[in-house]
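User: Structure tokens for both sequences below?

Assistant:
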Amino acid sequence: MTRRSICLLGVLILGIMSILHAQTPSIVLDGSNDYVGNYGDILDMGLSDWSYQIWFKTTAPTSGLIGKNLYGSQSGRWGVFFSKGSPNTLRVLLQGGTTSVQLDAIPQQPGNITWNDGVWHQVTVTCDRDGLMTIYLDGAYNNSISISALSTNNLNSTGYFFIGAYGNATGTAPQSGFYFNGSLDEARVWNKALSAADVAANYNVEIPYPQSNLMGYWQMNEDQGIFIYDQSGNNHTGTLYGGITWGDGPTTLPVELSSFTATITSQYFVQLHWITQSETDALGYTIYRSLVNDLQSAIQVSPLINATNTTTQVTYVYTDEEVTPGTWYYWLQSLDLNGNFNFHGPVLATVTSEQGGDAPEIPTNTGISNVYPNPFNPSLTIRYELKEALPVSFKIYNARGQMVQSYDLGTKEAASYDLIWDATGLPTGIYLIRMQAGNKLYNSKAVLSK
């Protein structure tokens, strides 16, 4: 699978990965009687947390993408679909007992554009039984709702699992007229709630398999025949019904980008860092800057920075020396040899003194000096200091000990720095912030309060 990289809006740090090679296959469904089935009663949530993911491109906004949806009330049903009653509405459903929780994806802005636009998109749904059911679209947070009322429900169901259809009242076959019309690709089911960092890192890459908590994984790369094979190791082979054909999946750019960050130097310049894990047929990169969070108003501030086209990790650095005090937004543009391009960002940098001014004093200590505001919602500034040049990384954990975000910042010079963490999509709670500088660890805590 390869994917068209989608612009993710974040603040200061953006962690994303996108693997880019040539187009790979997808399945094409006509909305009449096409679906993937023969799974039977599999993939029950039970008492587990849950996540599921699929790429889709609509021809018409009709019915089920993936799940154990049933046409009628039954405990344990789950899935994502286009609502028949509201044709342009992408909806998620989860039911425990007689309690049914629905959540609609928020249309794209600007223009209030629905997700039924004939363009490839990826939807991820995560279900944290003690917290939120969350929708991510194209790797970015979209909407969430509490499902804590279902935390103790056993969400087993007798319905069948389908891709490309919505089940009938018994769940043993698709409901008449409830077939998906469009293309589908790269479907996954997990028995854990993926974090925002997980989603950003894996939504547009083919992931290693098998791996723990991966219950079903259909890459749909067969390009022929009537079966799609499960790569999770659980042997949930799907059968293509109704005359499904094979088509092209989305295209992507030839860059695997793992981070894009901005820091303020001791001379009050803005230094942009980005790290690629691999590059294929990449031309290079340019940096754009604006005083407002609007790419349309941004100007190019760097020359073309040539790509290396290696399969190993490469760190790039560009310093913007033409800034004045204020808050600036930066985007990274990646370009390939075929003329395609993509934007990543924005990242944010706040300059508090005139460029080229006297350098601030070197800190006398290393560690986290402050986190503010605390409590926060949704952005937290993490102020840290280095008394000497050291490699720096951060990991952030929730109260259950699950890592929700990580940043590998590379080697930093002795100075004071601000890291801004955007916790959009995460539930209220206490979070542990762990900084590693060299071989030493430093901890702090912050409360997300919504």
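Moving on to the next sequence.
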Amino acid sequence: MISIMCAQMIGSDALQELYSNDSSFEQIYVELTGGGKRDNFIIINDYLFCGLQLCILGCTLREHIIWLLLDYVANLDI
């Protein structure tokens, strides 16, 4: 679900630029795209993962994803 939301919100070209300029992920992303290796980190379809967790950029994208998930959970019939 998250990967679908991210794909709808932002194109992969823009995502590459955002990861390489993000203070939390810049060094890791540049290292991995340059052919290096980092423990537990991998890039799949231009998205950066730490283990099974998607690394979410420290920008309004993060806030938007959190808002969407909270809205989704609030509307579940449990």
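User: Anything stand out in the second?

Assistant: The first strand starts at residue 41 and ends at 44.
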